[in-house]
Automatic annotation (TrEMBL):
Its EC number is 3.1.4.11. Residues 1-88 form the PH domain. InterPro entries: EF-hand-dom_pair, EF-hand_PLCG1, PH-like_dom_sf, PH_domain, PI-PLC_fam, PLC-gamma_C-SH2, PLC-gamma_N-SH2, PLC-like_Pdiesterase_TIM-brl. It comes from Ameca splendens. Residues 480-584, 595-685 form the SH2 domain. This is Phosphoinositide phospholipase C. The gene is PLCG2. Pfam families: EF_HAND_1_PLCG (PF23329), EF_HAND_2_PLCG (PF23583), PI-PLC-X (PF00388), SH2 (PF00017), SH3_1 (PF00018).
Length: 753
């Protein structure tokens, strides 16, 4: 290994030279902590755990690894300390140093001659990496002449000046410093070196505009200015900024709005209840990429925990003989639940001792849930929080009280009575209870438990599994999806024409509709070169999974993912290349929904709802005589209730603060979240549903028989059933033992008694 050059760590070995940008090093982890070491299981690798370490580096979520072994533990420790110091020094380096290092890296990445200069051709290839597009060749040539380029070649100083010109060519910011209200007035800013920001001007700016109390110390102001001054000769006791140097400061981390003193945790502030804090959390922690086809990895958990994340998610599914973790009903890869738990245990408290919360999304059968419980106990041991910190506490424990603890966040069955909540995890028996739903006309499964000789079950329907079709139907709630349109092709063309006439007609403006001819297919209609064109989105099936495509070589699991892809990547055809841009919104999408009624009175709505024997039944109606006013009518707690919805411009307002872009979005939201108390929207009251329940003479009796409190259930005794007045202990083999109050069925009364 050799020293650093321009922020680059260079390693020379038998396989050649490898360089790693210090700014891209995310972690240096001691031990054999990468798969690289698994290649030497044949015994060729003589390095033990104490002499190995791994460098994790890169700019993407999935990091590259460099695994190294030293000759002794002492040498390994020196490297660990040295590399960590260099990494911290790089991160703490002032902004001008970081920019110079980055510019040199970019320069040498395209420089074929490896000299301290680059050609104009090489510069042009570098511009996209700098997120810069020259307005014209002439404008680029003028910029190059401005920095003194001759013979089509730039040295590093000229390249740096070109970068500054490119970054700060917008003068809107500089115009702010020409106003009388500013703490100092800039002179001529058209030429970068024609105006200067003097020491005392800069101090006034920091005190009065930036509100920096430390700037009253002129020495600190002077030291800050010298960091951004390029020319050593100008680093005097009375320094002054050029315009470009002043702009560099404005956009630097040294001018960050964040006060660094709040980056350090004050332990005295960590004694409040856990619910008083924002908690750094991770969703779908196991994924290394997208939610459809990416890899799941234990390393994703390790990275999150070591970055300080305190709440991670485990999506647990039934696996072959043991639980697994992956994004259900997708093509993401699967990892073992036990491997994840072991990784969490090893890395949970490396960064901080504050508690780790495991958010469990449960899809496993009871048997594998028992395996999960066993693994949690065996792996976490005393770290697992299994008992209350304080039994009589009226609030959650504090982060300080929970230091070193791992908390499981998981659904459990609660029955609320009065002010107490009963915990049934230790019930005598638990399982599933099937209850017939007369609205959906199916048996719904509820989690239940027997405790204290009583049967308790979850009142709300628990979804057993995710429906794999839901990922294919994501497009249904998107504004660009118009469903089945009357006169589909003509209507689509009219909508796009009208929308483009209002917005200026950007190429790629589009909508999606169901195909007029093919049942399972869709049509993409879009604006290009002043006219509307149409493409068929075809569907196919492979291995039981439906896919969609525009071109046969690129398949997508859903229409939603197809459209997202072509909004980010161009659609390439023989005649053109086009990226989808603006979506043409569907005009009043609720008009296509069966739960919407445009001409229904309040009384009729209540009559409809009274026929449907379920909380969560709902419809939306337009209020009589009010064009932009609607009402959602629903059943809750056995009664019919109403909520007003007001249309304000392009949004729908429920209550006073909750806004939705459409009534469809509102309904979809409250299908997942409670609208009133614990009531979610579950049963759309369609004309067909009303007709079906109109044939039932006494719908209210169905409702009452289905939803009664457990202590009100008094079933009539079956024939030949008696209740024991006394307990009895069997005295003969053909007798039964029973307790006082037991129900005994199929009893026959003898003639004599």
């Amino acid at each position: 290994m050799v020293p650093l050059w321009s922020g680059i760590f260079i390693l020379k070995g038998a396989q050649g030279v490898l360089s790693v940008d210090l700014f891209e090093i995310r972690e240096i982890r001691p031990g054999r902590n990468s798969k690289d070491f698994e290649r030497f299981k044949d015994g060729r690798d003589k390095h033990n755990e104490n002499t190995c370490f791994t460098i994790f580096y890169g700019s993407q979520f999935v990091l590259s690894t460099l695994s190294l072994g030293a000759d002794s533990p002492e040498e390994a420790q020196k490297w660990l300390i040295g590399l960590e110091l260099l990494r911290e020094e790089t991160l703490a380096a002032p902004t001008p140093v970081l920019i110079e290092s980055w510019l040199r890296k970019q320069m040498y990445s395209v420089n074929q001659t490896k000299t301290n200069s680059l050609s104009v051709k090489e510069l042009k290839s570098l511009l996209p990496m700098l997120n810069y597009k020259a307005p014209s060749s002439r404008a680029l040539k003028d910029r190059l002449q401005e920095v003194g380029v001759k013979k089509d070649r730039l040295d590093f100083e000229q390249f740096h000046k070109f970068y500054n010109l490119m970054m700060f060519e917008q003068n809107e910011i500089l115009d702010e410093f020409k106003r009388e209200a500013c703490s100092f007035i800039l002179g001529n800013t058209d030429k970068q070196d024609a105006s200067a920001v003097l020491l005392h001007d800069f101090q006034r700016f920091l005190i009065y505009d930036q509100k920096e109390p430390w700037a009253n110390d002129l020495t600190q102001v002077r030291e800050l200015m010298t960091i951004f001054i390029d020319d050593t000769m100008r680093k005097t006791n009375d320094p002054e900024f050029t315009v470009s140097e002043f702009l560099s400061f404005l956009f630097s981390k040294e001018n960050s709005v964040w006060d660094e003193k709040f980056s350090e945790i004050n332990n005295l502030d960590m004694n409040n209840p856990l619910s008083h804090y924002w908690i750094s959390s991770s969703h779908n922690t196991y994924l290394t990429g997208d939610q459809i086809r990416s890899e799941s990895s234990t390393e994703a958990y390790v990275r999150c925990l070591r970055l300080g994340c305190r709440c991670v998610e485990l999506d647990c599914w039934e696996g072959p003989g043991e639980p697994i973790i992956y994004h259900g009903w997708t093509r993401t890869t699967k990892i073992k639940f036990e491997d994840v738990v072991k990784a969490i245990n090893e890395h949970a408290f490396v960064t901080t001792d504050f508690p780790v919360i495991l958010s469990i999304e449960e899809h496993c059968p009871i048997e594998q849930q028992r395996q999960m419980a066993r693994i949690f106990k065996e792996v976490f041991g005393d770290k697992l929080l299994s008992e209350p910190v304080e039994h009589m506490a009226e609030q959650l424990p504090s982060p300080t009280q929970l230091k070193g603890k791992i908390i499981l966040k998981h659904k459990k069955l609660n029955v609320e009575g009065g002010v107490t909540t009963r915990d049934f995890r230790r019930g005598q028996k638990q399982g599933d209870l099937e209850i017939w739903d007369p609205v959906d006309q199916r048996w719904n499964r509820h989690y239940c438990v027997i405790s204290d000789d009583k049967l308790y079950y979850a009142e709300e329907y628990e979804e057993e599994e995710e429906d794999p079709r839901k990922y294919q139907e994501l497009h249904c709630v998107e504004p660009w999806f118009h469903g089945r349109m009357k006169e589909g092709r003509l209507m689509a063309e009219q909508l796009i024409h009208d929308y483009c006439a209002e917005t200026g007609g950007q190429d790629g403006t589009f909508l999606v509709r169901q195909s007029d001819r093919y049942v399972h297919d869709f049509t993409l209609s879009f604006w290009r070169s002043g006219r509307v064109q149409h493409c068929r989105i075809r569907s196919g099936s492979e291995g039981g999974h439906t896919y969609f495509f525009l071109t046969s070589n690129l398949h997508f699991p859903s229409v939603f993912s197809l459209i997202q892809h072509y909004r980010e990547n161009p659609l390439r055809c023989q005649d053109f290349e086009l990226r989808l841009t603006e979506a043409v919104p569907s005009p009043d999408p609720h008009l296509q929904e069966r739960w919407f009624y445009s001409n229904l009175s309040r009384g009729q709505a209540e009559d409809y709802l009274l026929r449907i024997p379920r909380d969560g039944a709902f419809l939306i109606r337009q209020r009589e005589g009010e064009l932009d006013s609607y009402a959602i009518t629903f059943r809750g707690d056995g009664k019919v209730k109403h909520c007003r919805i007001q249309k304000d411009g392009n949004v729908y307002l429920l209550g006073t603060t909750t806004e939705f872009e459409s009534l469809v979005e509102l309904v979809n939201y409250f299908k997942k979240k409670p609208l009133y108390r614990k009531i979610k929207l579950r049963y759309p009251v369609t004309p067909e549903l009303v007709e079906r329940f109109s044939t039932n003479e006494n719908c209210s009796s169905i409702y009452m028989e289905t939803y009664v409190k457990p202590n009100e259930i008094e079933p009539s005794l079956p024939q030949n059933t008696v209740r024991a007045l006394y307990s009895y202990q069997a005295k003969r083999p053909d007798e039964l033992s029973f307790t006082k109050g037991a129900l005994i069925h199929n009893v026959s009364k003898e003639i004599d008694g």
